Amino acid sequence: MPDRRLIPIYDDTVPIACTIANAEIPDRVALVERMRAGLRMIERTPAGLLLHFPDDTALRSDLATFVIDEKRCCQFWGFEILDERDGVALRWDGPPAAADLIHRLEAYFNGDESISVLEGLL
Questions:
Q1: pTM of the model
Q2: What is the DSSP track for 80-91?
Q3: Residue 101's CB: how many other CB atoms inside 10 A?
Q4: Best CA proximity match to 12, nearest among 84, 88, 98
Q5: Is the separation of the CB atoms in 106 and 49 below 8 Å?
Q6: 25-58: per-residue pLDDT in tens?
Q7: Torsion sign, CA atoms 45, 51, 90, 55
Q8: Angle at 63 between CA 46 and CA 71, to 5 degrees
Q9: Residue 29 in contact with residue 62, Cβ under 8 Å?
Q10: CA dihedral defined by 8, 90, 73, 9, rounded to 10 degrees?
Q11: Which residues, listed in sequence order, are joined to residue 87 by a DSSP beta bridge?
Q12: Which residues contact residue 85 at a Cβ distance below 8 angstroms, ignoring those fewer than 6 apart?
């Protein structure tokens, strides 16, 4: 990652809660699993994660859909899609009170945990 200071983009004025409807969960899980399958590299940032992906049109579409849908149900998260020289990155920030959630996300995206570690998070 280039040397740049990242200003947090999360919202710590809203509750740390997920309001996803049960009917939406299977599609969201499938989307997150596609994201993990396409992931090239993951980095920790002061406020969250930076997920690096190859430059792929379908993946960019998935990321855009994910950001919109996830922000709708988990308003505390902050997201930014970044163009990179050889791909695309998803910046995923959370307030300090969401540190455990970010840790669980990192474990999942690193392949250390199954999707079940994200239960109640999507």
A1: 0.89
A2: EEEEETTEEEEE
A3: 20
A4: 98
A5: yes
A6: 999 999 999 999 999 999 999 999 999 999 999 9
A7: positive
A8: 65
A9: no
A10: 10
A11: 54, 84
A12: none
